[in-house]
C-alpha cells in the first residue's frame, strides 16, 4: 500500500491556513499525513493549533542563527529528518535562501495575499486599496528563489468594495485563502499537480494561467 504523502507546514503566526488544511483533512478531503509544523516564532498560535491536532511541532528561531544560510540549513535538516513530500508555507515570514528553495523546489508551496504578479512583498491589502483596484485576492504558487515570483497555481478573487478598510479586505481575501490552499494541496498530494520545465501542470496539462476561483466556485468539485 502506497504510504500517505507527508506534509510539513511552516508558519510564523495565527495558522488559520493551517487550520483550513486540518479541517479538510478531518473531513476526509485531504489524503495526506501532517508530518510536522515548524515555526520561527515560539509564540505562533499556529503551533497551538497543530498541538491540538496531535501534530509534532518544532521551533527553529531565526534569531539563534548567524545568518540566513545557517537558519535555512537547520530548517532543511529538520524536514529531511522527518521526511516530507510537500512543504507548505502558510504565513511563514522569512525569505528562504536559494539553496533551501532548490532543495525543495517543486514540492514547496506558498500562499500570497494578492493576485500575483501584482503586489509582491508585504502590506498587500493597503497597497491594493491605494492603487484603487476593483478586484484583489490571493495566489498559491510554487516557491522559487525570487520572492513571490514563483509559478502561480490557483488564485482566489474577491471584489474590492468602496470604503473597504485593509482589515475588511484582508478578511474577505482570507475566506478565499482557506478555500484555494486546501484545493492546491489536495491537487498536489493526489498527484494531479506538478511543477515541470514547461510550468505548472494540472492533470498533465500545462496551465496558461493560474486557475481562478471566486466565492461562487464549487472548489470541492475541481
Ligand atoms: N525565496 C523565497 N522565500 C519566500 C517566498 C518566496 O516566494 N521565495 N515567499 C515568502 C512568503 N512571503 C510572502 O508571501 C514573504 C515572507 C516574508 C517577507 C519578508 O520581507 N520577510 C523579512 C522578515 C519579516 C518579518 O520577520 O516580519 C525577512 O525575511 O527579512 C516577504 C514575503 C516566504 N519566503
Ligand atoms: N507574504 C506572506 C504573507 O503575507 N502571507 C499571508 O500571511 C497570512 C497568514 O495567515 P495565517 O497565519 O492565519 O494562515 C495569510 O493571509 C497569508 O496570505
TrEMBL record:
Pathways involved: Purine metabolism; IMP biosynthesis via de novo pathway; N(2)-formyl-N(1)-(5-phospho-D-ribosyl)glycinamide from N(1)-(5-phospho-D-ribosyl)glycinamide (10-formyl THF route): step 1/1
Amino-acid positions noted as binding N(1)-(5-phospho-beta-D-ribosyl)glycinamide in the UniProt annotation, renumbered to this chain? 15-17
Per its UniProt record, what InterPro entries does this chain match? Formyl_transf_N, Formyl_transf_N_sf, GART
User: Keywords, A to Z?
Assistant: Purine biosynthesis, Transferase
What Gene3D superfamilies does this protein map onto? Answer: Formyl transferase, N-terminal domain (3.40.50.170)
Has the keyword Transferase been applied to this entry? yes
Cite the Pfam families for this sequence: Formyl_trans_N
Give the UniProt record's GO annotations in the biological process aspect. 'de novo' IMP biosynthetic process
Look up keyword Magnesium and say if it applies: no
Instruction: Give start and end of each Formyl transferase N-terminal domain.
Output: 6-185
Enzyme class (EC, first level): transferase
Q: What is its EC number?
A: 2.1.2.2
Which top-rank group of organisms is this from?
Bacteria
Q: At which residues is there a site annotated Raises pKa of active site His? A: 148
Active site as annotated: 112
One molecular function GO term is: phosphoribosylglycinamide formyltransferase activity
Q: Name one GO cellular component term.
A: cytosol
Q: Which residues bind (6R)-10-formyltetrahydrofolate per the record?
A: 68, 93-96, 110
For this chain, the family text in UniProt reads: Belongs to the GART family.
What does the UniProt function comment say about this protein? Catalyzes the transfer of a formyl group from 10-formyltetrahydrofolate to 5-phospho-ribosyl-glycinamide (GAR), producing 5-phospho-ribosyl-N-formylglycinamide (FGAR) and tetrahydrofolate.
Name listed for the protein in its UniProt record = Phosphoribosylglycinamide formyltransferase
Q: Which organism is it from?
A: Halorhodospira halophila (strain DSM 244 / SL1)
